[in-house]
Amino acid sequence: MSSSLTFEDARQRVDAYISQFEEGYFPPLLMLARLTEETGEIARVIAHASGKTPKPGEDAGDLEMELADLLFVMVCMANERGVSLERGFTRMMQKVETRDAARWTRKDAEQSRE
Ligand SMILES: [Mg+2]
Predict the structure, then answer these.
(1) Could you give the residue ranges of the DSSP H alpha helices within 1-114?
(2) Does the record bear Hydrolase in its keywords (predicted)?
(3) pLDDT tens digit string along 35-91?
(4) CB of 75 within 8 A of CB of 6?
(5) Contact 70/35 with Cβ under 8 angstroms?
(6) Staple 7 to which of 37, 62, 86, 106, CB 3.0 to 4.6 Å?
(7) How far apart are CA 28 and CA 77, in angstroms?
(8) Which residues have beta carbons under 5 A from ligand 1 (an ion)?
(9) How far apart are CA 68 and CA 75, in angstroms?
């Protein structure tokens, strides 16, 4: 897939969608409840894929869609709070790339021991 959807595209598209409606964004605590609900739906898909017996009539679920549902809520939360997911993601990656740079076993280190 060669499309290049940016954080800014996602921010604007969600904002354009939500802005059509009088209700607007959910208040923060309700949004947090939605985020938790979507996290649970991801857990259900993973549980099914990991051998949990589905309830009667329950399908296996769609991990890609459930992750996207969570991302939608995260974009809503960032928009409503006026924070930048792109800046946050960039700061988070800088953190793991520096703080955790030596935390895990590097593949090249693994190969040189063989
Ligand atoms: Mg969902």
Answers:
(1) 7-18, 28-49, 63-81, 85-99, 107-113
(2) yes
(3) 999 999 999 999 998 887 777 787 888 999 999 999 999 999 999 999 999 999 999
(4) no
(5) yes
(6) 86
(7) 7
(8) 38, 41, 66, 69
(9) 10
Tell me how far the alpha carbon of residue 39 lies from the centroid of ligand 1, in angstroms. 8
Categorize the per-residue pLDDT at 109 as very low, low, confident or very high, splitting at 50, 70 and 90. Answer: low
Mean pLDDT, the chain, as a whole number?
A: 92
- From the CA of 92, how far away is ligand 1's center (Å)? 25
Ligand 1 centroid to residue 21 C-alpha, Å: 21
The residue written with tokens 């063989």 in the block is 114
Domains in the chain, start-ordered, CATH in brackets? 7-113 (1.10.287.1080)
Instruction: Give buried/exposed letters for 29-42 (b at 16+ CB in 10 A, else e).
Output: eebeebbeebeebb
Cα distance between residue 36 and residue 34, in whole Å: 5
- 97 Cα: distance to centroid of ligand 1 (angstroms): 31
Distance CA 39, CA 74 (A): 11
